[in-house]
Amino acid sequence: MNSLLQTAEILVDPMLLAIAVIYIYGFIVRLTPNTYVHQIVMGVTFGVGAIFAMLMPITFADGVIIDMRNLLIGLSSAFFGIPGAIIAGGMGLVTRFYIGGSGAIAGMTGIAIATCAGLFWAHFVRGKLKMQGFELVLLGLLICTYLLAVVLLPTTIMWSAIYELIPVLIVFNVVGTVLIGSLMIREEGLAAENAALLNAATTDPLTRLQNRRSAVAAYNALPIPKNSRHGIAILCFDVDNFKIINDTYGHVWGDKVLAEISDRISKTLRPTDVFSRLGGDEFLIILPAVTEAETQQIAERCRDVIAQTDIADAGETMNVTISVGAEWLSERPDFLTFVARADEALYHAKKLGRNCVSFAWLNTATAAQAFSQATQNRTA
């Protein structure tokens, strides 16, 4: 009885550690949305837990230790994919090799089996069954396949382990998997809910672009330009005669036009540019670390990618154009002031006849008209 209680106490400690690790996981997924970072950090965390388990084991025989390392490694593989499997499994293998003893080969083989069992469950079992609890029970049983490595122990030790320890270890592994796995899934669900709420608060549902709130946040996070040549630019544009499109073809067509424009222009921008929909047919593009000449090129490219190809849907086509207002500065004023200057340039583009780009810093009518004429010549 005392031996059984000692076994239970030693096996429970790593399970309690794993439960504490779950809350670390919840903190990490809220801190960063990068899944790869989650996998690496949690792989290391579960690997440390496995090492801790091996440093406080049951010594079953000379060189043969019993602990809950494989539960932790199997869970890391199941929930954190190949990165979690490689990191936690690798840390476990190195530690077990370092400890050595007559059970080292069996112990390392068990680690490899548990790692593969977790990956197998993640790819072939998870999400395939209607009952989540049953999936976790299957995961626990799959992790228990590491016990097959007992056949690599010396014969007398092997039979003693089969009769005395394996039933207890199966129970602890399955119960631990269900308990810890349920907490893991709960944290994943909470993280997904938080991500969905954040996405809804910062993303336009029609175009999947950033909305005004996230555009303001992105602008305020930009560094202040360090030299006078590479500044910040803002492009404001809207769809020419968009009200007529809606009134003539209906709002479904109007939504189609907005989505198509968003998709085309997104493909012309740099990865660092911020593209957002302010509302209706009004859009905003923030261009960080850009020159005046680059701003002109990007603005004209955005206008041209819409004008050069009709928008088609259900056998119908429509020629759609946009007007663009642009402002470039070598400093970073407040957001509203910057947008107001670009919006004024957009109003000027409308006065010039639409389907053109107007630049706020080219503040003479002659310069703007000359650029408009050049644009019309290119599209003629």
UniProtKB/TrEMBL annotation:
Transmembrane segments annotated in the record for this chain: 7-28, 40-60, 72-99, 105-124, 136-159, 165-185
Membrane topology: Multi-pass membrane protein
Ranges of residues in domain GGDEF: 230-362
GO cellular component assignments: plasma membrane
Protein localization: Cell membrane
Class of this enzyme: transferase
UniProt KW keywords: Cell membrane, Membrane, Nucleotidyltransferase, Transferase, Transmembrane, Transmembrane helix
Enzyme nomenclature, EC number: 2.7.7.65
One GO BP: cell wall organization
Keyword Chloroplast: no
Molecular function as annotated in GO: diguanylate cyclase activity; phosphorelay sensor kinase activity
Major site of localization recorded for this protein: membrane
InterPro entries reported for this sequence: Diguanylate_Cyclase (IPR050469), GGDEF_dom (IPR000160), Nucleotide_cyclase (IPR029787), Rev_trsase/Diguanyl_cyclase (IPR043128), Sig_transdc_His_kinase_LytS_TM (IPR011620)
Domain of life: Bacteria
Record's catalysed reaction(s): 2 GTP = 3',3'-c-di-GMP + 2 diphosphate
Protein name in the entry: diguanylate cyclase
